[in-house]
């Protein structure tokens, strides 16, 4: 059975049109923001905008998240500079093979550290915190958490216990800092 490309394209297009038309025929309510409803002055659209604008309840949404992103960028910049120096050392012909091996192992350690910190951040967020930032400095694991519930010794102990049980070095010192929320 020999079919040409034009027939295959035609059948594909025909089936796509059939699926899309069945979807729109079966849809019971019109799309909320289709081209016609945007320009109408219906009570529903006016009510929708009235509910969104509430001057008494305005709170900054992205201020604390921006702080976490800024901290991540600083750590990423520092580590990328260090990786560039190590890469230059590995590629240089001025160093011995032992020095190159040490530099390469340090690059691998930094990569593993980055992934371990990112994994720990995701796990802390899975505990119910909106945002977390984990970094390791001189054997200390520093955890910064965005908390909408405020902070307490109990919450800090929970995070410290969790990090100690899941971190690759259980002897590491863990410090927890809370951002946001009520004091």
Automatic annotation (TrEMBL):
Instruction: Give the keywords, sorted.
Output: Membrane, Transmembrane, Transmembrane helix
In terms of Gene3D superfamilies, this protein maps to:
Stage III sporulation protein AH-like
- List residues traversing the bilayer: 7-25
**Pfam families linked:** SpoIIIAH
Superkingdom of this protein's organism: Bacteria
**Protein name as catalogued:** SpoIIIAH-like family protein
């Amino acid at each position: 059975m020999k079919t040409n490309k034009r027939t295959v394209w035609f059948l594909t297009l025909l089936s796509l049109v059939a699926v899309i038309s069945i979807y729109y025929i079966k849809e019971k309510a019109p799309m909320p923001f289709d081209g016609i409803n945007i320009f109408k002055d219906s009570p529903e659209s006016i009510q929708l905008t009235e509910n969104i604008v509430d001057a008494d309840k305005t709170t900054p949404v992205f201020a604390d998240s921006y702080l976490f992103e800024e901290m991540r960028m600083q750590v990423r910049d520092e580590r990328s500079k260090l990786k560039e120096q190590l890469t230059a050392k590995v590629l240089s012909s001025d160093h011995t093979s032992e020095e190159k091996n040490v530099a390469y192992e340090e690059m691998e350690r930094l990569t593993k550290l980055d992934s371990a910190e990112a994994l720990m951040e995701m796990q802390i967020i899975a505990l119910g915190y909106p945002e977390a930032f984990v970094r390791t400095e001189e054997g200390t694991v520093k955890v910064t958490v965005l908390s909408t519930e405020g902070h307490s010794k109990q919450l800090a102990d929970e995070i410290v216990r969790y990090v100690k049980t899941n971190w690759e070095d259980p002897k590491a010192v863990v410090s927890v800092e809370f951002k946001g929320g009520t004091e």
